[in-house]
Design a protein that fits this description.
This protein has one domain. The protein has 8 helices and no strands. Helix 2 runs antiparallel to helix 3. The termini are close together.
C-alpha cells in the first residue's frame, strides 16, 4: 500500500486502536488490570493494526506491555498528577527510554525507527498538555475523559509518524501490505 492510502486506512485504524486501548485504561479500576491488562490490550490493538499494514510480529505486544505497563506502574506507585513536571519526566523515560524495545522491532519494518524514541514521548507529553488546555473549556475532568483524549491524541501523533516512517515500495525493503 502506498503512503497516500495509509492516511485513509492505517492512520484511522491506528488512532482507533490507541483510543480504544487507552479508553479501557480508564474503565479498569483494579490495580492488576490497570498494570497488566490495559497495557496488554493497548499493545494487542496496536499489533493488530501494525500486522495488517506492515506484517509486524507479535513481539510488539510484549514490548508494548513493558512500555505502557511501566508507565502505569510508575503512575500508580507515585500518584503522578496530570501535567506535573514529574509526570512529564515519567512519560519521557517510559515512552522514550523503554520505547527502545519498540524501536528495535520497528527497525525491521520502517525507515528511521530511531524517530520512535522521540515521537512516542513527545506524543505522550503533547497529548497530556493538550488535554490540560481542553479540560474545563470543552468537558469536565475525569479519568475517562483524560485517558480517552490521551489515547486519541497519542494515536494521531504516533500514527502520523509511522506513516512517514513507512518503507517505500522498492525491491530491497518491506512494503505496506494489504
Amino acid at each position: 500500500m502506498n503512503k497516500r492510502n495509509a492516511w485513509f486506512t492505517f492512520l484511522p485504524l491506528w488512532t482507533l486502536a490507541n483510543l480504544a486501548g487507552w479508553f479501557w485504561g480508564s474503565v479498569f479500576v483494579f490495580p492488576l488490570a490497570a498494570l497488566i491488562g490495559v497495557p496488554l490490550l493497548i499493545g494487542l490493538f496496536q499489533y493488530l493494526v501494525l500486522r495488517k499494514f506492515i506484517g509486524i510480529e507479535s513481539t510488539w505486544v510484549w514490548a508494548s506491555l513493558l512500555v505502557y505497563g511501566s508507565f502505569s506502574l510508575i503512575t500508580v506507585l507515585t500518584g503522578m498528577t496530570i501535567g506535573s513536571v514529574w509526570g512529564m519526566l515519567v512519560e519521557i523515560v517510559t515512552f522514550g527510554g523503554l520505547g527502545i524495545v519498540q524501536k528495535k522491532i520497528l527497525e525491521f519494518y520502517t525507515f528511521h525507527p530511531g524517530y520512535w524514541l522521540l515521537v512516542s514521548p513527545v506524543a505522550a507529553v503533547a497529548a497530556n498538555q493538550i488535554y490540560i488546555l481542553m479540560v474545563g473549556k470543552f468537558f469536565q475532568h475525569s479519568p475517562t475523559a483524560f485517558w480517552t483524549t490521551f489515547g486519541l491524541l497519542y494515536g494521531i501523533f504516533t500514527g502520523i509518524a509511522l506513516v512517514y516512517m513507512e518503507r517505500s515500495n522498492t525491491s530491497d525493503t518491506l512494503t505496506w501490505s494489504s
